[in-house]
Amino acid sequence: MKADIVTIFPGFFQGPLDHGITRRACEMGLATIEVHDLRQFTHDRHRTVDDRPFGGGEGMVLKPEPIFECLEPLGLSSREERLTGVAKQSVILLSAQGERFTQKVAAELAALEVVAATGSPAALLGLSRAELAVARLVATGLTNREVASQLFVSVKTVEYHLRNSYIKLDITSRRALTALLR
Predict the structure, then answer these.
(1) Rounded alpha-carbon distances, angstroms, from residue 66 to 26, 71, 93, 94
(2) Nearest in space to 162 (alpha carbons), one of 140, 133, 182
(3) HSE of 125 in the Cβ direction (CA atoms, 13 Å)?
(4) Which residues contact 86 (CB under 8 A, 6 or more apart)?
(5) Exposure string (b/e) for 34-69, b if CB count within 10 Å is 16 or more?
(6) Euclidean distance between CA atoms 168 and 165, whole angstroms
């Protein structure tokens, strides 16, 4: 099993990975675990990996650029190959809203090469902040006019960002967008 952990706190994993059963599995060649510092893939002097959500709201979201730059050299198969089972790999986004990690999930993942990344799944879709804000509101069932009103932009601007979101996500409908952002 190969696991790549993408995090902004690489030192956090030194203790747990250097002791116990995890260390023994790595020494025996049963597992390979690498920790990647997301901040190494930023290009500003402050090494910024997150930003405020477009359109307001609480909290922060991870920027997609550093995540993509970190994942590209890992040589992952395409998303389609991973979803259809052609490639025995998985990209896991750890989140408080995610599925509970149980023994059954652990057994399913044991046969895969796993990449774990922290943060919001929507931030990894490759959308700009404006596209993500529009997509989130459209996914709630709002019309283009209602989205424009909430974001204080024109309907044409909403249509532009929605069209770009459809292209980037390779989808063609609001229903597919809603399913993807759930």
Answers:
(1) 27, 9, 15, 17
(2) 133
(3) 26
(4) 77, 80
(5) ebbbbbebbeeeeeebbeebbbeeeeebbbbebbee
(6) 5
Asked if 142 and 133 count as a contact pair (C-beta separation under 8 A), the reply is no
Taken in order of first residue, the domains within the chain and their CATH numbers are 2-124 (3.40.1280.10), 129-181 (1.10.10.10)
Measured distance CA(106)–CA(100) in Å, rounded = 11
Can you tell me the distance from the alpha carbon of 38 to that of 116, in angstroms, rounded to the nearest whole number? 12
- pTM score: 0.59
Reported residue count of the chain is: 182
Beta bridge partners of 115: 4, 91
Kindly give the confidence (pLDDT) of every residue in the chain, 182 residues in length, as a single tens digit, with 9 standing for 90 and above. 788 888 888 888 888 888 888 889 889 998 888 899 999 999 999 888 888 777 666 667 788 888 889 888 888 888 788 778 788 888 887 766 667 778 888 788 777 776 655 555 554 556 777 888 898 899 889 999 999 998 899 999 999 999 988 888 888 999 988 887 76
